[in-house]
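Lab notebook, design round three. We kept the backbone fixed and only want residue identities now. Task for the bench partner: fill in a sequence for the structure below.
Input structure tokens:
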């Protein structure tokens, strides 16, 4: 019957009807022949002779019903069952099934289209899930990166307020604080604008500009010192390299340095060291702390998003800040290196220009 399954619905229905009509006619004439042989007297002469015509009549009338039943069983039952099952699974948000295509007729093509739709739904759901994950990462990065600039702004404002209250505010100290407030207000504004225009962190655009190394390192020292004061821990600064014009994205350099320092301050015991250097090719910023060091999970897996330390004593999250740092370093053609030294952890960011 396979040849019949591959026919179109119209053609197969016609073939089945013709076959059953032929079978019905044959059975009808055979029945009439048997009745004639049994009863030599003509049927229409015998009393109630018409009753003998009932079997041939039943045979003739039943053939279309048999034809319809066979047509449904061969051509309609399986694909309708497959499509009904698929529709119910989709309504239950279950796409873990497949629609079997058993023929090349119209219903087979419909099953094939249904299966294609199911596969497309799976692909669309995966894309939607990936977009949600990217948005989750982006929102987490957005919330994480706003903390450091806000801390610097609050620290600068606190310095101004303290100077005013104690009456020892100088033009120089006020100018430095106001400069930081202006600088970081602009950074927050630019950052919000940048984050609202991208769908994922990897889409952040690198904008290198000419800046003097001495000026950049001084800006870094001023802002990072406020983070240390806010955490009530000491920061030792080491700076090396000749003053020169370098082309870097200051926002990225500040962002990475602040994230690394924030992580170090969070896990250090008393103090951290920030070593900044510049040569003909790159800027290097190394942050060392006196804490317990990076766990084996961090050193093995690297800076991955939402990665948590497997050290049950710490239970702290290193993931988002280090992940942002790694992405920004790579966007600047550099690297982020994580390692442990005898007294704690060390993170080194490199920015090539």
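Proposed sequence:
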């Amino acid at each position: 019957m396979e040849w019949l399954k591959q026919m179109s619905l119209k053609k197969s229905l016609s073939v089945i009807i013709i076959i059953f009509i032929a079978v019905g006619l044959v059975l009808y004439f055979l029945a009439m022949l048997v009745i004639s042989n049994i009863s030599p007297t003509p049927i229409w002469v015998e009393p109630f002779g018409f009753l003998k015509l009932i079997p041939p009549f039943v045979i003739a009338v039943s053939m279309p019903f048999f034809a319809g039943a066979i047509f449904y069983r061969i051509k309609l039952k399986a694909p309708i069952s497959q499509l009904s099952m698929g529709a119910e699974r989709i309504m239950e948000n279950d796409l873990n099934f497949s629609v079997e295509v058993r023929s090349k007729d119209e219903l087979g093509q419909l099953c094939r289209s249904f299966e294609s739709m199911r596969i497309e739904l799976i692909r669309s759901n995966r894309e939607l899930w990936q977009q949600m994950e990217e948005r989750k990462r982006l929102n987490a990065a957005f919330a994480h990166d706003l903390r450091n600039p806000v801390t610097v702004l609050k620290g600068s404002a606190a310095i101004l307020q303290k100077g005013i209250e104690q009456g020892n505010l100088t033009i120089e100290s006020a100018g430095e604080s106001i400069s930081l407030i202006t600088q970081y207000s602009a950074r927050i504004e630019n950052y919000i604008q940048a984050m609202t225009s991208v769908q994922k962190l990897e889409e952040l655009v690198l904008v290198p500009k000419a800046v003097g190394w001495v000026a950049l390192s001084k800006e870094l020292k001023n802002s990072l010192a406020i983070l240390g004061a806010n955490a009530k821990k000491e920061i030792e600064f080491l700076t090396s390299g000749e003053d020169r014009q370098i082309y870097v994205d200051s926002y990225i350099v500040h962002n990475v340095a602040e994230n690394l320092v924030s992580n170090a301050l969070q896990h250090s015991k008393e103090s951290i060291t920030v070593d900044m250097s510049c040569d003909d090719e790159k800027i290097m910023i190394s942050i060392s702390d006196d804490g317990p060091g990076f766990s084996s999970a961090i050193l093995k897996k690297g800076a991955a998003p939402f990665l948590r330390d497997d050290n049950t004593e710490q239970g702290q999250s290193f993931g988002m800040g280090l992940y942002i740092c790694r992405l920004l370093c790579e966007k600047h053609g550099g690297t982020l290196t994580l390692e442990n030294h005898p007294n704690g952890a060390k993170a080194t960011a490199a920015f090539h220009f």
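Keep this in mind before ordering anything: Strands lie at 209-212, 234-240, 245-248, 271-278, 282-289, 335-341, 344-352.
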